[in-house]
């Protein structure tokens, strides 16, 4: 690629030091293997920890009822932002409190405490680009409007809705 058409600013940002910078984040382990972490513009901070949506989404789709998931930051008065998942379900699965609790419990088993999902919203479909990529910017805008109005999504559940999850950890 020689640059972005009619955008020298984007070209200068992406083309630095003789290399094209994709904006993808990866980690190299002790054996030299690379693991995709996520897009630089998708990683967010929650309680001053860097959260990769890709890792949380990977855990979510391991749940038998989850078809697709998109994780974004949700504004929070204490933590500034918390991970929230927008989830589509497999055929036959029904959104509701029992399923939300099951998904929260599943993610608690697989993720470090600081990475835990704090909110889940079931949706019939995720907004996507023509090429099939999830439009996180649209989800973030929806989330910002929802939080600023003080409302809740029609099929949204908070981790705090299930106090028995806390008791399960301390027991």
Query: Cα distance, first to last residue?
Result: 56 Å
* CATH class category label: Alpha Beta
CATH architecture: 2-Layer Sandwich
What's the number of domains?
Answer: 1
Q: What number is the mean pLDDT?
A: 86
Quaternary structure of the protein: single chain
CATH superfamily: ANL, C-terminal domain
Total number of strands: 10
Net shape? globular
Radius of gyration: 18 Å
Which sheet architecture does the biggest sheet show? Answer: 4 strands, mixed
**Strands ordered across the widest β-sheet:** 7-8-9-10
SS field, number of helical segments:
5
- Give the % helix: 25-40%
Q: What is the CATH third-level topology name?
A: GMP Synthetase, Chain A, domain 3
Structural class, judged by helices and strands?
alpha+beta
The percentage of residues in β strands lies in 25-35%
- Which residue ranges are poorly predicted, with pLDDT under 50 across at least 5 consecutive positions? none
Tell me what the structure shows.
The protein has 171 residues and is an alpha+beta fold. The protein has a single domain, classed as ANL, C-terminal domain (GMP Synthetase, Chain A, domain 3), CATH 3.30.300. It is 30% helix and 29% strand. It has five helices and ten strands, in the order αββββββαββαβαβα. The strands form four sheets. It has a four-stranded mixed β-sheet with strand order 7-8-9-10, with helices on both faces. The longest helix has 14 residues. The chain is globular, with a radius of gyration of 18 Å. The N and C termini lie far apart (56 Å).
